[in-house]
Write a structure and sequence with these properties.
Blueprint (H helix, E strand, L loop, with lengths): L1 H5 L8 H9 L16 H46 L1
Length: 86
């Protein structure tokens, strides 16, 4: 989170691994003094900034809304098919 506070507009692609040695204790770093993020939202926040995270969340919400609407549509179609068969 400190990295995101220091770079509110992001550090760019691959910046998390590049700057991880400046923000983490050495015992947490892997070979080459880097550390991969294990949290997608944190990675996007750090590399793309707050606007990038907002855009990512908007895309995810649109995806889930589309999936929900498709599910509802298909359930109605299946019910109509069953009624016509019976």
């Amino acid at each position: 989170m400190e990295m995101a506070k220091d770079h509110p507009f992001g550090v760019g692609g691959g910046g998390f691994e590049y700057l991880s040695s400046q923000y983490m204790p050495p015992e947490l770093l892997t070979r080459g003094n880097v550390r991969a993020s294990h949290n997608t939202y944190l990675l996007i926040l750090v590399e793309q900034g707050f606007l990038g995270l907002l855009l990512f969340l908007l895309i995810l919400s649109k995806l889930f809304i589309s999936l929900w609407n498709t599910r509802r549509f298909l359930l109605v179609k299946i019910q109509i098919m069953i009624k016509t068969i019976i």
